[in-house]
UniProtKB/TrEMBL annotation:
Belongs to the GTP-binding SRP family. FtsY subfamily. It is a peripheral membrane protein. It comes from Rhodomicrobium vannielii (strain ATCC 17100 / DSM 162 / LMG 4299 / NCIMB 10020 / ATH 3.1.1). Coiled coil: none annotated. This is Signal recognition particle receptor FtsY. InterPro entries: AAA+_ATPase (IPR003593), P-loop_NTPase (IPR027417), Signal_recog_particl_SRP54_hlx (IPR013822), SR_rcpt_FtsY (IPR004390), SRP/SRP_N (IPR036225), SRP54_GTPase_dom (IPR000897), SRP54_N_sf (IPR042101).
Length: 409
């Protein structure tokens, strides 16, 4: 990787850099290895607690040598993929849930605005309704405050916007455009400190990212998108299919592996996730990977047994690298609204979340929740997703987001 792709301290910042030629895997390509168990029907969340772990022999160089946990597990398999040198015309088949192929797209800012249309129209139409031909007085301010709270911005941010408006224009005429401009400015002030792209410290070999979150929030898809973007920046990326609960997630990750040339370490469905993560980190170290991204099964934050499993994964990988994971990323589905606040709180306590990624901002009128989360928790927001393609995940910009939701061009 050339120096100009690295930030300070040998780190690589996510996004904003042109494409590079795909790195070629150094090792000769091994035989493709079939997934060793037939794929079962997806199991419902309620059944997860009782899902049986696969009975299988334990590898010689096993995480079990460290006597951390006692469940049997399947042996991990590494699949090496050669990234296509040209963008593939044919869509990759295995999983219907895998990421869609890239299509010619409009620019990111345009997509962000399009994606946030539902959130912004709720706010802008409401503001127009409140302020057309009306003075800024106590009644209008109260109506506006209600609107901001209903738009999920949270009490603190809503109060802040109202205070700023009152200070600037109390008892005078004000247009909806002016109200939107003040709203955008205040939201930007709240978001500015948390807008921090994910930085990979390449002095770590590998830099370990653990992806956590509630079911279906976009963990696997986000890993795929990051894998694509970081391999394009010249990093040697490895993926661990630690969502051993959902067979489709393993397949989905392999599709991203094929697309990006990133080897995927996977095990049997139902295998112990901590053991798989251990094996993956051991291999990533041995093979000199720059970045290892570990997928985990989705879990509701109020299921204590499942949350304890996350702690176990972290304990086990620390036997290989005491500093790992270097980042713990929580994916949040914007459509879940207020529940996202409790997800941040509980995953934060259990797994030591270091940064957030909010997905599905394209399908919701509840994108304001990101502002409430920023105000309450102050955790870095690394990226946001406004669609399923790799380029629909971008570094989070406070100004772009604030303007987009306030409908300011
Ligand atoms: N519209 C939209 N869909 C998204 C976005 N990110 C992910 N998805 C879709 O959301 C669905 C769930 O994504 P996954 O990546 O499988 O979620 P997960 O968190 O790994 O799911 P579990 O393994 O069940 O916990 C998939 O259909 C994705 O394509 C986004 O930003 N916008």
């Amino acid at each position: 990787m050339s120096e100009d792709k690295r930030g300070l301290f040998g780190s690589v910042r996510m996004f904003g850099i042109g494409k590079k030629e795909q790195p070629k895997p150094e090792a000769p390509k091994p035989e493709a290895v079939e997934v060793e168990t037939p794929l079962a029907e997806p199991v419902r969340q309620a059944e997860y607690d009782s899902v049986a772990l696969a009975e299988a022999p334990v590898a010689a160089e096993s995480w079990k040598d460290f006597e951390i946990v006692d469940e049997p597990r399947g042996e991990a398999v590494v699949e090496e993929f050669q990234a296509p040198s040209e963008p593939s015309a044919a869509p990759v088949q295995p999983s219907p849930a895998a990421a869609p192929e890239e299509k010619p797209r409009v620019g990111w800012l345009q997509r962000l605005k399009q994606g946030l249309t539902k959130t912004s129209s709720k706010l802008t139409e409401g503001i127009t309704g409140v302020f057309t031909k009306r003075k800024l007085d106590d009644d209008t301010l109260e109506e506006l405050e209600d609107l901001l709270i209903q738009s999920d911005l949270g009490l603190a941010v809503s109060a802040r916007v109202i205070a700023a408006l009152k200070k600037a224009r109390y008892n005078s005429d004000i247009s909806p455009e002016e109200v939107r401009a003040i709203l955008a400015a205040e939201v930007e002030k709240v978001l500015g400190p948390v807008a921090q792209p994910l930085e990979i410290d390449t002095s770590k070999k590998p830099y370990v990212v653990l992806m956590v979150g509630v079911n279906g929030t976009g963990k696997t898809t986000t890993i795929g998108k990051y894998a694509k973007q970081f391999t394009e920046q010249g990093l040697k990326v490895m993926l661990a299919a630690g969502d051993t609960f959902r067979a489709a997630a393993i397949e989905q990750l392999k599709v991203w592996g094929e697309r990006t040339g990133a080897p995927v370490v996977s095990g049997a469905q139902g295998a112990d996730a901590a053991g798989l993560a251990f094996d993956a980190l051991t291999r990533a170290k041995k093979e000199g990977a720059d970045l290892l991204i570990i997928d985990t099964a989705g879990r509701l934050q109020n299921k204590t047994g499942l949350m304890a499993e996350l702690e176990k994964i972290i304990r086990v990988i620390r036997k290989v690298d005491p500093e790992a994971p270097h980042s713990v990323l929580l994916t949040l589905d914007a459509t879940t609204g207020q529940n996202a606040l409790s997800q941040v709180e509980i995953f934060g306590k259990t797994a030591g979340v270091t940064g957030l990624i909010m997905t599905k901002l394209d399908g919701t009128a509840r994108g304001g929740i990101l502002v409430a989360i920023a105000a309450k928790h102050g955790l870095p927001v690394h990226a946001i997703g406004v669609g399923e393609s790799a380029s629909d995940l971008q570094a989070f910009s406070a100004q772009d987001f604030a303007r987009a939701i306030a409908g300011v061009s």
